[in-house]
Amino acid sequence: MNREELAKALKSYRTPFEEEQLFVQQFIELTDDPLAFHRDRKEGHFTASAWIVNKTRTHALLTHHRKLNRWLQLGGHADGNENLLEVAMNEAREESGLISLKLVDRGIFDIDKHIIPANAKDPQHFHYDVRFLIEAAMDEPLTISEESKDLAWVKYETIPDVVKANDSILRMLEKTSKSEVVC
C-alpha cells in the first residue's frame, strides 16, 4: 500500500464511529504532505499499528509501552516507509517476536489521531495512526522488545479494565467483538 493507495483507501474508508469520521479528511490531506511519513514533520505524522487477535477472537495482544506507561496495540513510526501495512507488520514482529502473523484484510481496520506528549527529543505532536487487523497463534512464544515493559494476550472482557479510558482500543475491541470468525 503506497501513498496513492493509502489516499484511495482513506477516501473509501467508512466507519460507524463518529470519532473516526471526524478525522478521516485530515488523514487524506496528510497524504499530500511530502514529510507525512517522517518524524521530521513535528506537528504530526503517520504511524501504523497492528491490532493482533487470536483466531477465535477471545484475546488481543497488548504491549505495556515503556515510554507512555500504558497498555496499547503494537505499532510504530513509518520512518519514511510509505507502505503502512508493511510498517504495521514489521512493528508487530519486532515488538512481539511473533513470526506467524496473518493479515486478516488488506484494508484499513481503524484509524486514530492522538496526541503524543513532549519528551526530551520531540515537542508534543500528533500521530495519525493507520491500523490493520492481524491474527496470531497464542501458543507462539513472545519476545518483549526494549520499547515494552511487558506483552500479554488479554481476554476481550478484561481489556476495558487494562486500557482504562483508551477509546481507540475500546473501538477496535468493539469492531473485532462484532466481526465474524473465519475458520
UniProtKB/TrEMBL annotation:
In terms of Gene3D superfamilies, this protein maps to: Nucleoside Triphosphate Pyrophosphohydrolase
Residues in domain Nudix hydrolase? 43-176
Protein known as: ADP-ribose pyrophosphatase
Q: What organism does this protein naturally occur in?
A: Echinicola vietnamensis (strain DSM 17526 / LMG 23754 / KMM 6221)
